[in-house]
Amino acid sequence: MSFENEYTHKFPAVRGMQSGRPCYIAMCPMRLIPKLFLFDEDVVPPELRAQRRLNDARVPDIANYLIDNSDNYTLSAITASVNGDTLFEPMADTGPAINLGLLSIDMNAQILVNDGQHRRAAIEVAVKEAHELGYDNIPVLFFIDDGLKRSQQMFADLNKHAVRPSDSLSTLYDHREAASTLARYIYDHVPCFKALTDLEQNSLSKRSSKLFTLSAIKIASKTLLKKRSKDKITADEMVLAARYWEAVCVNMPDWKSALKKSVTTCELREQYIHAHGLGLASIGAAGADLLRQYPDNWEEKLEALKHIDWSRSNTAIWKGRAMDTRGVISKTKNNTVLTANIIRHALGISLNADDQLIEDQFNS
């Protein structure tokens, strides 16, 4: 093939075949990504493009991830369609090297991103701030463009079967986020949680033998320590959180019964507020105030947990707080506060101004 334009982009590449069409995988310096790959959302409407609209909120998160972890990050491949002349020159005519070679792409060709537009935009931002990232590489999978219809189908196919991992599984595997490390520490150091926590699911099925999820433990423990996901958590704070949850477990007879298998976790979920993520988060929220107001005797105060009527049938207490009008557990921020207020009252904890306002609004 001869190019109309004498100037070309050249990539060492591996050639392969998918559904009878050639494709090429190449390593591309990240500093070239913004210059090579176009994203056409501002040019044409959705029905005439091959991608979804860029979500600007996602770009800074990915860019910061690259900048903050420049020596320890992972980026999956970008998939792109080439609309223009290409030429693959193999290293050899026979043998394994026949699919190793040099991919040339006409500089006048249009290269559109089919999958990875947020990575592309984030790389552009990150390289401007951390120039050394520009010399790193990202794999790019090139397809030869067969027109808009094919490119749109590629986007649909690439995303149709993509499944985001559960928050519990992400928490289990995430060694960067302090809150995930906290959740795993608590899971490892609180026997009740160790035995009754599902590490993979965000919600439990009726037949599940578990009572908690790792994601619920993370949320409740962040609330307990008043931490955000990106906040640092000290070793002493992790120890304190584990002590708190162990003391809670001691004062929750139903949890101990589940641990001994004298009652099924299914029964507890059907009958009690404390067997849900909302209950756990509310105990964490009340605990944050307990640790602050009673730093020396908070463990003694937790004995009052035994005397709370956690039954879902007690609608006089829980309706509108932990449950909606249909008796379904509700997980909004206000519901967590209103549920935690019942726990605060039982433990002798005074409400702060914000919690009192929500309580007053509920009572009125």
Total helix count?
A: 16
The helix-and-strand class reads alpha+beta
Distance between the termini: 79 Å
Number of domains: 2
Strand order of the largest sheet: 4-5-1-2-7-3-6
Note poorly predicted spans. Answer: 43-50
Beta-strand share of residues: 15-25%
- How many runs of DSSP E, i.e. beta strands? 9
Report the sheet with the most strands, covering strand number, pairing sense and barrel closure. Answer: 7 strands, mixed
Which whole number gives the mean pLDDT?
89
Radius of gyration: 27 Å
- In helices, the fraction of residues equals 40-55%
Describe this structure in words.
Helix 5 crosses helix 6 (178-189), helix 8 (214-225) runs parallel beside helix 12 and helix 15 packs across helix 16. This protein has 364 residues and is of the alpha+beta class. Mean pLDDT is 89; it is low at 43-50. The strands form two sheets. Strands 4-5-1-2-7-3-6 form a seven-stranded mixed beta sheet. The protein has a two-stranded parallel sheet with strand order 8-9. It has helices at 33-36, 58-68, 117-129, 148-160, 167-173, 178-189, 191-196, 214-225, 235-250, 253-260, 265-271, 277-293, 298-301, 315-318, 333-347, 353-363; strands at residues 8-18, 21-29, 78-83, 86-90, 100-106, 110-115, 137-144, 197-198, 212-213. Strand 1 and strand 2 form a beta hairpin. It has 16 helices and nine strands. The chain has two domains: 8-160, no CATH class; 167-363, no CATH class. It is elongated, with a radius of gyration of 27 Å. Helix content is 44%, strand content 15%.
